[in-house]
Every structure is written in structure tokens, then in C-alpha cells.
């Protein structure tokens, strides 16, 4: 079916040229017609430009109407609609169309009955704006209009939802609607602003509807800057629409408040990011914000990976919140982070169930919606083994980093109070531990290990951060292949030339315990060393929290500092003149970030001959290692010996640490190892991403995003309105009108975080920044 493309033109030479070029490039003008209407432009270059397009494209249907007098936008488009006998597209001259635009919009127009108009998506088209609703969106860097449009088409759900009004920047109008409803109301809206709303509302009253073409993207330059005259015109025309079409106007306001097309906006937001890079799904048991204190080592490791590989990969973190009993997925893109709900808590039928059908279905949807290329599992507590089966079915590679011993036992640490490391190789002897710690009468360890073993065999790569960890895992899963990749750590700048102001601290020998000191982290040794130090010149410091609240208060010879930020620890240790650090963990840690923090601070350590801490300390001779049956008296005796012999051996340990730090693996070095591994596995197992249920999966995923953000739409409206009022304050409207807009905003959004900010902006722009004499109160 033939379509006439009507482009009203008034000046804006560069915009007009680009607009026509894109229409010529992406439209079959042997079938359709491009009607250029010059509304008596004052720029003398316009008419020759339009004629040149006709002259240079004689085989194409390009026609020109040159108004003898200026008719304005509404009058000009009416001329076009009257000239045409077909469906028309009203296209602003500051737009850029994209590949297959007309075909897709026309298909949308005839996809449903009683359709009057179709509006495509755009960066700047109020209701049709994506990804941010009602906003002028800026194209991402290093992506063209055509690339953006291609992504929109690829990721589209083709919903073609109804909208309360069309947008005139690119407005497809069916001829039958024009014949039934008539043209734009030139008499009322001759100077523009509101004419397409008036036409749309008349169509609605006539039984027609308006669709949003969510697989087509048209770039619209536009402008958010309005003069006083334009603002007054817009306000007066809005009032006319409100009085003339009260129900239609109310429905539009309701549409704006509820934003029923949020799924489309979210889909574009994700789509543009997901198609730009490979996507890594990370599974972890918990995921605290990096700004929190005393974050676990696994979370720190993941943040290091994200920070150093964010420009190359998109990271999607699935985790469980024990505080909210919900599963979340946080997506980290180049410069954006989006968090959505994955699900509420999955109903378990046993205390330690390994599989869950509901979890499996959600993971299947997630892998499709987020176009996952590779899965990197870091912890499966609160998760389920179904993820291995789903990955295998979809041919998605899995890397599983074992940060502890959860794969051997849900106790995680294989901790025994007397022997430190339990007799984990004898699963038949686990019954008493299970009864005591899990309150169950059945020994589930054989089945647990059987199912984990099957899952480990599915993974393409299994990683541990230390050789001692590898040895323990291989004692149970003897024939699996394990790679050792140690974590990286970045040097932290310490205060230079620090002058100790606390002479009392400086006169004493200060040692420190670091981190969360639970029973398995050596709480009884903290208690014992504090007791031993009471009548000595040795002071014990705790940077972190103790499992026993009694030790979260400072006492004689003991200073409690509380939780700390990782980046602050070296200077905290320096300020308190810490000479020695006790890492008395009673379970075989797999790496230990607290050891890394000690080494970064160039402070020797005391530890037990157990796990990765002992392995790493031995490798560089960075401290003293005690047998695991040592007592608090033994530890304190060693501390006193180190203090009294605070010379050659101590200095040697520090020199060893400094030498180690020169070649220490950084987080960037570590990330490069993982980037190589990711790319190799992704290239070996490419994903087709073909899923017949993808649209339904997307809709369910975006629906859950609404559950996460019940106030998001309200806050978004507050922010958009704030920006609009702020722009109006800066433009030359009267002081009285500017003040009224500020007051209206403050009265409407009484609890908005921008309520006071807009008042400060008003004072700044009108009384401080700009000469107040130019603003007239009227």
C-alpha cells in the first residue's frame, strides 16, 4: 500500500538535509512518495537544497510544495494531508529515519483493527521515548543511530501496545481516520503544540485507537528549551485539551503516572547493553554493596572482576538477600547498574534440598533474557544445582570457583573445634556433626557429594585460589581437573611521613586481630591473648567485630576499633603503630583477604599451620607459623619473643614482604587471566540465543522489575518534572512565572528529594548567577 511521507520544513538547513538523506536511503520511493513542503523558510539555502534532491533522484517519487506564505506547522501538515490520497506519515524535519522503518510502521498499523495512528520509538518523543520515559535520551557513546535502531528491532517484543495519543515527530495516520475525523485543528492550534493530541483524542472519540511501534526507532533531535512565549502557548493549549477532552486528558495523565509500557523501555535499556558485549552470569550466595564494611572475600573478588572487566563484558549477579528473603539479579554495564527481582524465596521441601524446579525455570528465563554467554559460579549456598543442567542443555559454559568447601559439605568450612579440620574423608562419620549442626537424623553427605560430583563434571573449568584447597577437594573428587588461580590485590597508598600523635600507643607493642572474629576464625585465641596481655606492655587491637559482644568494647590493654572499609585498613594499622597481626583462623581458609591486607600494610603475621594462609605465609616467609594444637599462652609467648627480639628476624620478615609486594599480582593481572579464560570458553561454545519463549520470558522478567521498584515511576516523574522546571527557570520567562512553577513543584512533590534543590536553583539562576535586572516580574 502506497504511503505519502509529509515533511514540513522551516529553516534548520543541516537537520533538513540529514532527514531527507535518511528517508531517501531507507525508503522505497519508487513505491512511496516523499512530499517536501517548504513553509516559506527564511534561510535562502533551503529551497535550492530541496530542488537538488529532486534533481539528483529523478527516478524517485520526491515532490515539493513551496508555500507562498508561512502557514506554520499545523497548516503545513494539513496541506500535505489534503494533497495525499493515501495513508500519510507526518515526519519532522529534525528526525533521522532508519532501515525498514516504513515497512515496520505500516505492518504495525495493520496488525490490529480500528487503528488510526502509529508512533515509533525514539530518543526524544515523550510517551515514545526510550529507554527513559518522558525524557530526551542521549545516544550511548560509540553507537550510531542505525546501530541503535538495529538493536531495538532485534530485541523487540513486537507488542504494539495502545497509547493514549500519538506523537507528531513521526506519526503514521491511516487514510480512513483522516477521512472520518478530518485534519488537524489549524484554527485552535495553528502555532503548534497540542494539535496531534487534539487529533488523537478526536480519533479516540470516534472509536479508533493509537499504537506504539516498539520494533522501530527514529532519531529525533528536538529541544527541551522553550521561550516564555512557547511556554505560555503550551500551557494554554494544554488547558484547552483538558477542558475539551476531560476523560482523554485524564487517561493520558494516568498513562504517564502508571507507565504501562515500562517493559518496552526496560527491554530497550537492556537490549542496547546486552547486544554490545558478551554477558557473564555470576552466581553468589550473597552480594553486599562495596560501600559496606567487612565485606566477605568472595564478594570483594567479584567486585574486582567487575571493576577490571566492565568495559569488555556485562556482568549479571544473581544472589539471595537473607534480610528480604528474595533473589535478585544486578546487571553491571559499562556505566550503569540495574537491579531486578529474580524471585521470592523458593519453597523447599527438605532442609537441604539440592534441586528446585521453580529456580530452574527462572534460570532458564534469565539465561535467555540476558543473552548469557558464560556462567561463573562463585557460591551455591541458597542456590540449586539445576543451573548445571540448564547450562548443559543450552550449551553454555560454566566456570565454578570453589571459594570454600560447600561442595563437600554445607557446613562450608569443614571446621572441628578440637582438630580444626574435620575428618571430611570419612562421610560415614558425619552423622553426629549433622545431628548437632543441622538437627537432622539422616546423613545426607553421600547424596550431597554424589550430586555435586555430577555437577562438577558438567563444568568446563573448576578453579580454586590455593593449592591447599585443591588438595582437600581432590581428596574427595579425585578425577576432576582443578586449576589454581590466586586472587589479585591492589596496593593501597598509605599516608606518607605520618607523625604519630598518640605517644601512648607508640610506647607500647601493638598487635592486631583483623576481620570478623567468629569461633572458627579464632575467637578463643582473641579472648586468651587479651587475658594474657592484661598486665603487660602489649596492646591488642581488633579491627572488625567479635562473635562475642563482650569483645566489641575496649578494655585494659585492648582497643576495639569496629568495622572498617577495606581501603582504610592500611592507614588504620599505621595510625595505631601495629607491629604484628594475628590470623588465628581454625579452618583451612582457601585464600584470605585479611592476609593480603596485612601484607599490603607490610606487617608480619602469626598464624596456624593450616590452609591457604599458612601456604602463602610459607611461600614468602612473611611471618611465624604455629602448630594447630597451640594454646593462647603459646601465641602470647611467641608475641613476647618477637617483641624482645624486635630486630633481625623481624626485619627480615618485613623485607620479604616488601620484595613480594614488588611482583604481587594485581586485580588487573587477575582480571586478565579471567578475561582470557572467558573468551576462550565463549569461542569454544558459542551461544545461538534462539529461544521460542523469549518474549514471554522478557515480559515476566520486566514485570518483576515493577515489584522491585513500587516508587520508581513516581520518583522518575519527580525527576523529569524537576529537570523541566529547572530548564524553564534558566530560560527567559518572567520571574513571577518561574517562581510559580517552583512553588507548584514543591507543593506537588512534598516529599521529593528535589523539593529544596529546585528552590536553590531558582535563587541561584535568578538572583545570584544572572543579573536580576533582566528578569521582569509580571
From TrEMBL:
The keyword Translocase does not apply. It comes from the Bacteria. Pfam families: Glyco_transf_4, Glycos_transf_1, Glycos_transf_2. The keyword Ubl conjugation does not apply. Signal peptide: none annotated. GO terms for molecular function: glycosyltransferase activity. Keywords: Glycosyltransferase, Transferase. Residues 295-490 form the Glycosyltransferase subfamily 4-like N-terminal domain. Residues 5-181 form the Glycosyltransferase 2-like domain. Residues 502-658 form the Glycosyl transferase family domain. Belongs to the glycosyltransferase 2 family. This is Glycosyltransferase, GT2 family. It comes from Bacteroides faecichinchillae.
Amino acid at each position: 500500500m502506497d504511503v505519502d511521507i509529509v515533511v514540513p520544513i522551516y529553516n534548520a538547513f543541516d537537520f533538513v538535509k540529514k532527514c531527507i538523506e535518511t528517508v531517501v536511503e531507507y525508503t522505497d520511493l519508487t513505491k512511496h512518495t516523499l512530499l517536501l513542503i517548504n513553509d516559506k523558510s527564511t534561510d535562502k539555502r533551503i529551497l535550492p537544497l530541496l530542488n537538488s534532491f529532486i534533481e539528483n533522484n529523478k527516478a524517485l517519487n520526491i515532490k515539493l510544495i513551496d508555500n507562498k506564505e508561512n502557514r506554520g506547522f499545523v497548516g503545513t501538515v494539513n496541506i500535505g494531508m489534503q494533497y495525499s490520497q493515501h495513508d500519510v506519515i507526518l515526519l519532522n524535519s529534525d528526525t533521522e529515519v532508519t532501515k525498514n522503518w516504513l515497512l515496520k510502521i505500516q505492518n504495525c498499523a495493520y496488525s490490529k483493527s480500528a487503528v488510526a495512528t502509529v508512533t515509533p520509538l525514539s530518543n526524544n518523543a515523550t510517551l515514545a521515548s526510550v529507554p527513559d520515559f518522558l525524557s530526551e535520551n542521549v545516544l550511548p557513546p560509540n553507537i550510531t543511530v542505525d546501530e541503535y535502531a538495529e538493536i531495538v528491532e532485534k530485541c523487540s517484543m513486537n507488542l504494539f501496545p495502545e497509547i493514549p495519543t500519538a506523537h507528531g515527530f513521526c506519526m503514521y495516520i491511516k487514510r480512513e481516520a483522516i477521512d472520518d475525523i478530518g485534519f488537524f485543528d489549524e484554527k485552535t492550534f495553528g502555532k503548534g503544540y497540542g494539535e496531534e493530541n487534539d487529533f488523537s483524542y478526536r480519533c479516540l472519540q470516534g472509536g479508533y485507537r493509537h499504537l506504539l511501534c516498539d520494533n522501530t526507532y527514529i532519531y529525533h533531535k528536538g529541544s527541551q528549551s522553550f521561550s516564555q512565549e512557547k511556554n505560555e502557548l503550551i500551557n494554554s493549549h494544554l488547558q484547552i485539551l483538558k477542558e475539551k477532552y476531560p476523560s482523554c486528558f485524564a487517561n493520558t495523565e494516568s498513562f504517564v503516572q502508571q507507565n504501562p509500557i515500562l517493559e518496552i523501555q526496560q527491554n530497550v535499556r537492556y537490549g542496547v547493553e546486552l547486544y554490545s558485549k558478551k554477558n557473564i552470569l555470576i552466581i553468589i550466595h550473597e552480594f553486599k554493596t562495596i560501600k559496606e564494611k567487612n565485606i566477605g572475600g568472595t564478594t570483594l573478588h567479584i567486585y574486582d572482576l567487575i571493576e577490571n572487566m566492565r568495559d569488555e563484558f556485562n556482568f549479571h549477579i544473581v544472589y539471595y538477600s537473607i534480610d528480604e528473603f528474595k533473589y535478585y539479579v544486578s546487571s553491571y554495564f559499562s556505566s550503569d547498574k540495574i537491579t531486578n527481582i529474580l524471585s521470592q524465596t523458593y519453597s523447599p521441601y527438605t532442609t537441604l534440598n539440592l534441586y528446585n524446579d521453580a529456580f530452574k525455570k527462572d534460570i532458564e528465563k534469565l539465561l535467555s533474557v540476558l543473552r548469557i554467554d558464560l556462567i561463573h559460579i562463585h557460591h551455591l549456598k541458597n542456590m540449586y544445582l539445576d543451573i548445571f543442567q540448564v547450562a548443559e542443555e543450552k550449551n553454555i559454559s560454566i566456570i565454578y570457583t570453589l571459594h570454600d568447601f560447600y561442595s563437600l559439605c554445607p557446613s562450608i568450612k569443614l571446621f572441628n573445634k578440637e582438630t580444626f579440620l574435620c575428618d571430611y574423608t570419612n562421610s560415614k562419620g558425619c552423622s553426629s556433626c549433622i545431628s548437632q549442626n543441622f538437627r537432622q537424623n539422616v546423613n545426607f553427605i553421600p547424596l550431597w557429594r554424589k550430586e555435586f560430583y555430577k555437577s562438577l563434571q558438567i563444568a568446563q573449568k573448576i578453579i580454586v585460589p590455593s593449592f591447599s584447597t585443591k588438595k582437600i577437594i581432590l581428596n574427595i573428587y579425585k578425577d576432576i581437573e582443578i586449576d589454581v588461580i590466586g586472587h589479585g590485590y591492589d596496593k593501597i597508598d598509605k599516608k606518607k611521613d605520618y607523625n604519630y600523635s598518640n605517644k601512648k600507643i607508640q610506647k607500647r607493642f601493638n598487635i592486631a586481630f583483623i576481620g570478623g572474629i567468629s569461633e572458627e576464625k579464632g575467637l578463643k585465641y582473641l579472648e586468651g591473648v587479651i587475658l594474657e596481655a592484661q598486665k603487660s606492655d602489649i596492646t591488642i587491637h581488633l579491627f572488625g567485630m567479635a562473635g562475642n559482644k563482650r569483645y566489641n568494647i575496649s578494655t585494659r590493654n585492648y582497643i576495639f576499633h569496629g568495622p572498617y572499609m577495606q581501603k582504610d585498613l592500611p592507614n588504620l594499622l599505621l595510625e595505631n603503630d601495629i607491629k604484628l597481626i594475628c590470623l588465628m583462623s581454625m579452618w583451612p581458609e582457601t585464600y584470605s583477604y585479611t592476609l593480603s591486607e596485612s601484607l599490603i600494610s607490610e606487617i608480619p603475621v602469626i598464624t596456624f599451620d593450616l590452609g591457604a594462609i599458612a601456604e602463602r605465609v610459607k611461600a614468602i616467609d612473611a611471618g611465624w607459623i604455629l602448630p594447630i594444637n597451640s594454646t593462647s599462652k603459646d601465641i602470647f609467648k611467641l608475641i613476647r619473643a618477637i617483641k624482645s627480639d624486635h630486630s633481625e628476624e623481624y626485619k627480615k620478615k618485613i623485607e620479604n614482604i616488601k620484595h613480594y609486594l614488588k611482583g604481587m599480582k594485581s586485580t588487573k593481572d587477575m582480571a586478565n587471566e579471567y578475561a582470557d579464560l572467558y573468551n576462550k570458553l565463549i569461542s569454544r561454545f558459542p551461544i545461538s540465543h534462539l529461544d521460542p519463549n523469549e518474549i514471554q520470558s522478557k515480559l515476566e522478567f520486566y514485570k518483576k522489575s515493577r515489584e522491585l521498584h513500587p516508587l520508581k515511576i513516581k520518583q522518575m516523574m519527580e525527576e523529569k518534572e524537576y529537570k523541566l522546571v529547572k530548564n524553564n527557570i534558566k530560560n527567559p520567562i518572567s520571574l513571577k512565572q518561574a517562581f510559580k512553577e517552583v512553588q507548584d513543584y514543591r507543593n506537588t512533590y512534598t516529599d521529593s528529594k528535589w523539593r529544596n534543590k529546585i528552590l536553590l536553583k531558582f535563587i541561584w539562576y535568578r538572583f545570584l548567577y544572572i543579573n536580576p535586572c533582566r528578569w521582569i516580574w509580571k
